[in-house]
Amino acid sequence: MAEYQTHEHEVLVIGAGGAGLRAAIEASALGAKVAVVCKSLLGKAHTVMAEGGIAAALANVDDRDNWKVHFADTMRGGQYLNNPRMAQLHAQEAPARVRELEAWGALFDRTPDGRILQRNFGGHKYPRLAHVGDRTGLEMIRTLQDHGIHRGIDFFMECTVLRLLKDGGRIAGAFAYDRERGFFHLFRAPAIVLATGGAGRAYQITSNSWEYTGDGLALAYEAGATLMDMEFVQFHPTGMVWPPSVRGILVTEGVRGEGGILLNKDGRRFLFDDIPENYRAQTADNEEEGWRYTQGDKNARRPPELLTRDHVARCIVREIREGRGSPHGGVFLDISWIKRKLPNAAEYIKRKLPSMYHQFKQLADIDITAEPMEVGPTTHYMMGGVRVNAETQMSDVPGLFAAGECAAGLHGANRLGGNSLSDLLVFGKRAGEYAARFAQQSRPATPDPEEVEAVARQALAPFESYSGDNPYQVQRELQEVMQNWVGIVRREEELHRALEALGRLKERAKRASVTGNREYNPGWHTALDLHSLLVVSEAIARSAIERKESRGAHFRDDYPSQDPAFGRVNVVVRKGADGTMQVTREPLPPMPAELQQIIEEMK
Ligand SMILES: Cc1cc2nc3c(=O)[nH]c(=O)nc-3n(C[C@H](O)[C@H](O)[C@H](O)COP(=O)(O)OP(=O)(O)OC[C@H]3O[C@@H](n4cnc5c(N)ncnc54)[C@H](O)[C@@H]3O)c2cc1C
Fold first, then answer.
1. Cα separation of 60 and 342, whole Å?
2. Is the dihedral of CA 22, 81, 253, 91 positive or negative?
3. What is the CB-side half-sphere exposure of residue 565 using CA atoms within 13 A?
4. How far apart are CA 55 and CA 417, in angstroms?
5. Would you kindly state where each structural domain of the chain is located, as residue ranges?
6. How far, in Å, CA of 129 to CA of 15, rounded?
7. Reported pTM
8. May I ask the CATH architecture of the domain 239-377?
9. What is the pLDDT of residue 279?
10. Residue 408 — very low, low, confident or very high, per pLDDT cuts 50/70/90?
11. Backbone angles phi and psi of 569, in degrees to 5
12. Which residues contact 326 (CB under 8 A, 6 or more apart)?
């Protein structure tokens, strides 16, 4: 018999980033008994790393902004594959969530007349990102933690959930292990909010930290929920490329929002050569106009560096492939050039981008106020995730909710920068509210003790295996497969090759063996993460095969154009009755006439 501690709550939140904390605060405000579980330390979730800001149509810097413009920008950025109701709720509710954060103590940068300052970001028509220098996520997490910690929420840190448990068709709890001491926990709860963030660790080059192995997606999939839009992985155009030890670390889009420009090795601003037709009217075609835009000139058009991330990333890849890249396989991002425009440029850069200044100084010995950075695409964000109801955030499994990066729908084929932090607040709140209501109206649910035993046995299997299959080696090979064959530019033949390789890695992962004991054993933790990585990677590869066109973040070299047949369908993934992964196409929810009209007007 496995030994474990049992805990009873009404709402269990898995993940302590922005979405999880906001959900926990809301559920507890409604009187629910709430626990938050997180894989690392409290305060260390990805949200804390967010730099650029929170997108919300506050209209503080440009009074032409409003929810309709934000909605239309989000839909266009997502190539109209977004769930329209989610995009509407997000645009309408984001301003209130930002003001609420301010009321709870967040100190945003200010306009001269004392309102929340907003900055430009790719794909947003007006300056829209509320920010705190380039440390917005830190302020957001600090505020949510300060606010949440006094509400009597139970926190379990360094605790990884391995399996969701059901009672009949509905959620009954979760099984987890304590990373530090190695013992097991059984959480009983009729409502669970998944807020586990992304899956960037499925790739070799990523801005994501070690804990982002797609656990929430795999947990939901195994519990019978539907995953959606898994082919849409966002490759952020600007990650560090040198030195090798820091490859993939994010260089915020805020650098471009403050005037940074992208250059190839010949000093050419190559993005001027390739402005997509649907953005041409809004995009500057000369340096002077682009600069005036970043300085707040309302009559100027945005520089091409602020086109959507998918487009900018592909242009960078083209420059590198065609031999016009920088010495270490990237291109140049230059903010120091603004000294030609501003007498106090160095001070301006240090004030607006303090983290970037220190990041490059300390990690690459580069002074960004004086010389250009070398940058290249890095795996950054999952647009795909758990399919949820737009109003409640509940998945197809009764009692299972999802919010934040691990949920799908809001961003469609490509997320706009800044739209994640607002997503966390808007839909974190909704998930917490509806999870609390669901729990309060539910009969008690009981996990099956035999299932609990089986999960515990599986978790300990790597200690019993003597195959010699090293979990780190399996993880590294998986990352290589995804980077090389399921990356920014995809081809059918390579995607199939990736699936075959993933099949072989799945067999090796089952046999993975570890030594030592259960107290803080990173080899064991890596072995346990492999299942999530494999599920997520397979779902990405299979969905990428299914979408035989190029749209947003998904680019198929063998189908380089958009195909109208895919214009109104999501690719969805479910676990079949025989245990294999099933991929189908399903129509998007219908677009209400009033939302269609907004899109037409904004065009
Ligand atoms: C460097 C960087 C900069 C960014 N800048 C911006 C920006 O300026 N604006 C913007 O909008 N977006 C930005 N993003 C994206 C944004 O930060 C993330 O998408 C967002 O923070 C995700 O929040 P979340 O609450 O969904 O999850 P996270 O903040 O990622 O938190 C996930 C939580 O789940 C826990 N967890 C995971 N698996 C398990 C498990 N099995 N068991 C228990 N707990 C688990 C983790 O420990 C963590 O606590 C940035 C991302 C990065 C990496």
1. 24
2. negative
3. 7
4. 8
5. 239-377, 449-553
6. 24
7. 0.94
8. Alpha-Beta Complex (3.90)
9. 86
10. very high
11. -130, 145
12. 241, 265, 332, 374
Question: Which residues partner with 57 through β-bridges?
Answer: none
User: What is the spatial distance between Cα 58 and Cα 443, in angstroms, rounded to a whole number?
Assistant: 42
Please tell me the residue having the least CA distance from ligand 1 atom 27: 197
Q: Render 222-267 in DSSP notation, one character per residue.
A: HTTPPEE-TT-EEEEEEEE-SSGGGTT-B--THHHHTT-EEE-TTS
Residue 1 predicted with pLDDT over 80: no
| Residue linked to tokens 């670390």 | 249
- Pocket of ligand 1 contains residue 38 by CB under 6 Å: yes
- DSSP assignment of 506-543: HHHHHT----S-STT-HHHHHHHHHHHHHHHHHHHHHH
Which of 321, 236, 309 has its CA nearest to residue 271? 309
CA–CA separation, 124 and 103 (whole Å): 25
The alpha-carbon radius of gyration of the chain (Å, integer) is 23
- Encoded tokens for 354: 């303090």
139 to each of 5, 91, 106, 136, 169, how far by Cα in Å? 34, 22, 6, 5, 39
Residues classed as catalytic: 236, 256
Tell me the C-alpha distance between 212 and 201, whole Å. Answer: 6
Residue nearest to atom 12 of ligand 1 (CA): 420
pLDDT digits (tens, 9 = 90+) for 473-499: 999 999 999 999 999 999 999 999 999
Statement: residue 468 has pLDDT above 90 = no
Query: Sign of the CA dihedral 250, 252, 256, 260?
Result: negative
Q: Do the first three CATH levels of 239-377 and 449-553 match, i.e. the same topology?
A: no
Q: What is the DSSP letter of 551?
A: B
Q: Is 139 in the pocket of ligand 1 (CB under 6 A)?
A: no
Q: Which residue has the tokens 């054993």?
A: 521
Q: How far is the CA of 14 from the centre of ligand 1 (A)?
A: 12
Average pLDDT, the chain: 95
Quick: pLDDT tens for 195-212.
Answer: 999 999 999 999 999 999
Classified by CATH at the fold level, domain 449-553 comes out as Methane Monooxygenase Hydroxylase; Chain G, domain 1 (1.20.58)
Rounded to the nearest angstrom, the distance between the alpha carbon of 44 and the centre of ligand 1 is 9
